[in-house]
Amino acid sequence: VQLVESGGGLVQAGGSLNVSCVAFDDGSMVYDMGWYRQSPGKGREAVAISGWDGERIIYLDSVKGRFTISRDFTKKTVHLQMNSLKPEDTATYYCYEDTSPSNWGQGIQVTVSS
After folding, report:
1. Sequence-ordered list of residues with C-beta below 8 angstroms from that of 59, at least 6 positions apart, any chain
2. What is the pLDDT of residues 2-59, one digit of tens each?
């Protein structure tokens, strides 16, 4: 299964960006999907995860109230709307699907300037 990300880019602090991911998958199984991020010198951290049941959503504490994850189960897409961005949100953002083994996108850069 291929995960293809889009969006991201460069924005000033306080601005907004959106990243999207589509899973090219012919199967009928539904998995948790979401976004991780990694900045230079740091480990990869979970930013927002949407459960396979369409009800469970988990956010990284530092993005709560600013980021919103949404999902279209029919189109197999997951989106992350990022508002009130801060320089510390600068990272490569990776789409994630909780398959076995885990499925990852190639990553997309989000840069927030101060």
Report:
1. 47, 48, 67, 69
2. 999 999 999 999 999 999 999 997 778 889 999 999 998 999 999 999 999 989 999 9
Confirm if 76 and 3 have CB atoms less than 8 A apart. no
Distance, CA of 2 to CA of 70 (rounded, Å): 19
Tokens encoding 42: 């740091």
Q: How far apart are the first and last CA of the chain?
A: 37
Task: Read off the tokens for 106.
Answer: 């190639």
The alpha carbon dihedral of 45, 56, 1, 21 has a sign of: negative
For the stretch 44-76, pLDDT in tens is: 999 999 999 989 999 999 999 999 999 999 999
* Angstrom distance (rounded) from CA 80 to CA 69: 5
Output phi, psi for 89, to 5 deg.
-80, -10
